[in-house]
# Entry
Amino acid sequence: MEHVHQSIRDLSVDEREEIFVSIAQVLEGTAREAFAEGNRHFAAISSNMAEAIRVNADELARDNLDAAEQVLQQAAAVITQFKAAHPYPMISTAVH
# Structure
């Protein structure tokens, strides 16, 4: 994790903000998958975390980098936990 610590500090504010927005999008995707599988608790956690990151992305990118680093680590842990429990994503066979 030390590499993440160094790289986030080396990025510009705009690049950091883009990372937070991307992480929020991934969390929203895991929330949708978890909800579709019936895991409402995990879906709520992931969705709430995504919303909090999206709302505070600018502040996280500009202000306290230690807090920003913790948020990224927590989001990565949630995503990793979901991917470990669900290594094969659901594939939609719907015809539109």
About this structure: The radius of gyration is 15 Å. Helices lie at 2-10, 13-36, 40-62, 65-85. The mean pLDDT is 84.
